Amino acid sequence: MSTSMLRSTTALRTALRTAAPQATKAFSTTAPTRALATLPDLAYDYGALEPAISGRIMELHHTKHHQTYVTNYNTIQSQVTDALSTGDTAAAIALQPALTFHGGGNLNHTLFFENLAPKNQGGGQPPSGPLAKSIETHYGSFEKMKTQFVAALAGIQGSGWAWLVQDNETGALGIRQYANQDPVVGKFTPLMGIDAWEHAYYLQYENRKA
User: Fold this and answer.
1) Of 33, 103, 148, 202, which residue is least crowded by CB atoms under 10 Å?
2) CB 152 within 8 A of CB 131
3) Which of 27-56 are b and which e, b meaning 16 or more Cβ less than 10 Å from the residue's Cβ?
4) For helices 96-115 and 9-27, what crossing angle results, to 10°?
5) What secondary structure letter does DSSP report for 46?
């Protein structure tokens, strides 16, 4: 987990504020018109994170994988809306796993790409301010947090994500694993996520996941 790619704490907050209203609007099925999700543009070139992440991986990850989640989410959202409009509650419920998978895939990837930045756009520095102090309080140091984060990622069986989250009730930080594309919602706010799916690293790092 390279610190050279992490955005500043301010940028992380901005990403969360930007993503949250979109997610709320996109998941609403009671509005008279349906808002389509779109593939967010990156704030940097595909090759801007090299050598940590290759430009080819970034391009495929963004234009193929993320785009697929956006496309499928829009399709499933339409099917849910149609089912609810006709009172077919059973059909709407049956679509919920697919809605979570593709909607979560869109939300997770949006946060993931917005968490990254080249050095000339604020990357290259570890967290500072209140976040840095909270990490030190909970983990002892940023390096110790990274060690636990990598261990959590290595422990994911199959595909999924590891997230640094904040408990909305206590303010405590934690590292949590999420299977597949399950998004961080409810009790926790996502601060930083790392994609453990093979498409996020395999072309460059092959089987060397850690």
Assistant:
1) 33
2) no
3) beeeeeeeeebebbebbbebebbeeebbee
4) 160
5) G
Neighbours of 173 (CB within 10 A): 18
Helix (H, G, I), strand (E, B) or coil at 117: coil
41 annotated ligand-binding residue:
no
61 is in an annotated binding site: yes
Specify the pTM: 0.82
Q: Tell whether 102 is in a known binding site.
A: no
